[in-house]
Specification:
The longest helix is centred in the middle third of the chain and has 13 residues, at 115-127. By secondary structure, the chain is of the alpha+beta class. 27% of the residues are buried. The protein is built from 6 helices and 8 strands, in the order H-H-E-E-E-H-H-E-H-E-H-E-E-E.
Length: 213
């Protein structure tokens, strides 16, 4: 009986001597804890809108939030700051990047633009899923405004541009007439339609409409 018990105990002991690769693998497999792959949901990249000044050839990248819903609230007053500038190649001059982007290209002067204009341009780009906007005109210094009038350009005597309350722009891939309808639907202020020059004027003055070249 004692011999049988010793034999059983001896058989339960781990083998003495080198272990084969197969035995080592099986032993390691038994001792290893189960490992399961976890599904990781990749975050969608934040879309970026590029605002480009056609006169200075400068660009302003703007990070966008999800597109507004069908029942989105009207443009806030003052500007709610839902968009953020990523980086820009615009020289810093102590003013926000948008003010610098739309500065007077003739005098190089900038002013504090009404923030609703920036919001209008961004919302227009989002409305049509475009990632590129060209700014034709923003702030105009009084000196440049007077020069344009003397040369016979389509410049209103009481233009909103010298006040920093107007912007002329176009959205890539969007017909000017379609862009016009959207801007008018915002009821922001004055809206000008320039089919030959292919841009829309938007300002925060009295609500009105006109057609130019």
């Amino acid at each position: 009986m004692q011999l049988l018990l010793v034999a059983i105990l001896f058989s339960a002991l781990p083998p003495i001597g080198p272990v084969s690769k197969k035995e080592a693998f099986l032993r390691d497999k038994q001792e290893r804890h189960d490992v399961h792959l976890a599904k990781v949901t990749a975050q969608a990249a934040t879309p970026v809108l590029t605002m480009h000044n056609v006169w200075t050839n400068e660009s302003l990248p703007v990070a966008l939030t999800p597109s507004p819903t069908k029942n989105a609230p009207p443009i806030p007053k003052p500007f709610a700051g839902r968009w953020s500038v990523v980086t820009s190649n615009i020289p810093a001059a102590g003013s926000p990047p948008f003010n610098q982007l739309v500065r007077d290209h003739y005098t190089n002067q900038s002013t504090t633009m009404d923030p609703r204009l920036f919001d209008t341009v961004v919302r227009a780009a989002q409305k049509f899923h475009s990632r590129y906007v060209e700014v034709v005109s923003g702030f105009r210094a009084p000196k440049y405004q007077l020069m344009l009038r003397k040369k016979g350009h389509e410049v209103a005597r009481d233009s909103q541009h010298p006040r920093g309350t107007a912007v002329d722009f176009r959205v890539a891939g969007v017909p000017t007439k379609i862009l016009l309808r959207f801007v008018r639907s915002l009821h922001l202020g004055g809206v000008g339609y320039y089919p030959e020059s292919k841009f829309v004027h938007a300002d925060v003055g009295p609500v009105r409409f006109w057609r130019g070249h």
